[in-house]
Design brief:
Blueprint: E1 2-4, H1 9-19, E2 27-31, E3 51-55, H2 61-71, E4 75-78, H3 85-90, H4 93-115, H5 119-124, E5 126-132, H6 157-176, E6 180-185, E7 188-189, H7 198-208, E8 212-215, E9 221-223, E10 225-226, H8 227-240, E11 246-249, E12 254-256, H9 257-271, E13 283-286, H10 301-307, H11 315-328, H12 330-336, H13 340-348
Parallel strand pairs: 1-2, 1-4, 2-3, 4-5, 5-6, 6-11, 7-10, 8-13
Antiparallel strand pairs: 9-12
The protein binds nicotinamide-adenine-dinucleotide and thymidine-5'-diphosphate (TYD).
Nicotinamide-adenine-dinucleotide (NAD) binds next to helix 1, helix 4 and strand 5.
């Protein structure tokens, strides 16, 4: 199986979960290793013959063609992307390049390879595109959750670039018959999450004694999904999803950012008590993100009804596991937060 972005947060969790199961296919892991890609996350796979890593940019068509020809994958699972909304606001160009042009290149390489397969291999082939709920835009407090038929209304350069990639994937099915599947997941959290996103950033700052910067009034709502549950959903869609269909993946965990940060602080107070006071004392309210989407919420009934998938974790159980993982893996965090990360933090939170 060819996995793109398998050194990033969700991709690496997927690769580790997949290879920990007996009898699963080997993985060719294609990742450019941007600031968000981290080979330390994959360290436990050292010497595992079922994992081959290739440092490759998905915008490099010739390199992709070689990988398809050499490894003859039966499926592609496409995670590679620029994924951070705040970065897309500062510098959208890379988002257009990787998320749109890169996905186009990957589709073209997959289409060429797939076109040369025999009838049985062609029918069995799958191209699974990992997208986001952010393509659907922002909900008001009383609006129904996003379903698979909700209209696209992306609001950030990130979500617009993901929306464009979704349209390409859809078109490759309708025009060429490429057997595609698309998933739209809500905000993930869990081990190996790069500390620029809300949950790992708050934990990292809390433990370092820095302030916990909440954008705006902190009442924006996200629907949190434990990364292990997301990986299980992808496995289900890959194995049994109907070709050409889209599936929403959510945790049924709508919470305001302030609620999430309070819960994190309370868990840290319990598991790593400070000498004086609570981690909640470090919370500060900072200038809001431009165009900040107010609420995301996923209706994941289709996935449950058709494929029998349900999340195993509640936000409370998943966050407890996640906080414990970060406390136990400070060396990974130190490694991930060296270098460029410091410049990003200094610029993004300067005000
Ligand atoms: P991430 O930023 O942690 O990892 C992205 C990975 O892609 C990194 O390893 C990076 O090196 C690699 N990459 C970037 N550009 C590349 C290129 N041009 N060629 C090859 N590799 C490249 O992202 P993530 O959080 O793991 O997200 C994975 C996917 O899931 C993305 O497509 C994202 O849009 C989607 N998604 C994520 C979330 C979330 O909460 N994290 C929610 C919804 C959807
Ligand atoms: P983020 O993890 O960047 O994911 P997304 O923007 O893709 O949903 O942000 C989650 C929420 O947390 C979002 O409403 C923005 C907010 N947020 C803060 O309040 N402070 C921060 O420092 C960050 C990074 C995010």
């Amino acid at each position: 199986m060819l996995v793109t972005g398998g050194a990033g947060f969700i991709g690496a969790n997927f690769v580790l979960n997949w290879l920990s199961q007996d009898g699963t296919d080997g993985i060719i892991n294609v990742d450019k290793l941007t600031y968000a890609g981290n080979r330390n996350t994959l360290a436990s796979l050292g010497g595992n013959a079922r994992h081959i890593f290739s440092q490759t940019d998905i915008c490099d068509r010739a390199a992709l063609d070689k990988l398809f020809a050499a490894h003859q994958p039966r499926a592609v699972v496409h995670f590679a992307a620029e994924s951070h909304v705040d970065r897309s606001i500062h510098d959208p160009a890379e988002f257009i390049q990787t998320n749109i042009v890169g996905t186009f290149n990957l589709l073209e390489a997959a289409r060429t390879y797939w076109g040369g397969l025999d009838a049985a291999a062609k029918a069995a082939f799958r191209f699974l595109h990992v997208s986001t709920d952010e393509v659907f835009g922002s909900l008001g407090p009383g609006d129904p959750q996003f379903s698979e038929t909700t209209a696209y209304r992306p609001n950030s350069p990130y979500s617009a670039s993901k929306a464009a990639s979704d349209h390409l994937v859809r078109a490759y099915h309708h025009t060429y018959g490429l057997p595609v599947l698309t998933t739209h997941c809500s905000n993930n959290y869990g081990p190996y999450h790069f500390p620029e996103k809300l949950i790992p950033l708050m934990m990292t700052n809390a433990l370092a004694g820095r302030s916990l910067p909440i954008y705006g009034d902190g009442l924006n709502v996200r629907d949190w999904l434990y990364v292990g549950d997301h990986c299980a959903a992808i496995c289900a869609v890959l194995a049994r999803g109907r070709v050409g269909e889209t599936y929403n993946v959510g945790g049924w965990n709508e919470k305001t950012n302030l609620d999430v940060v309070h819960t994190l602080c309370d868990l840290l107070d319990e598991l790593r008590r400070k000498a004086i006071g609570s981690y909640r004392d470090q919370i500060t309210f900072v200038k809001d993100r431009p165009g900040h989407d107010r609420r995301y919420a996923i209706d994941a009934h289709k996935l449950e009804r058709e494929l029998g998938w349900k999340p195993a974790e509640t936000l409370e159980t998943g966050l407890r596991k996640t906080v414990q993982w970060y406390l136990d893996n400070q060396a990974w965090v130190r490694n991930a937060t060296s270098g460029d990360y410091r410049n990003w933090m200094a610029n993004q939170y300067a005000e």
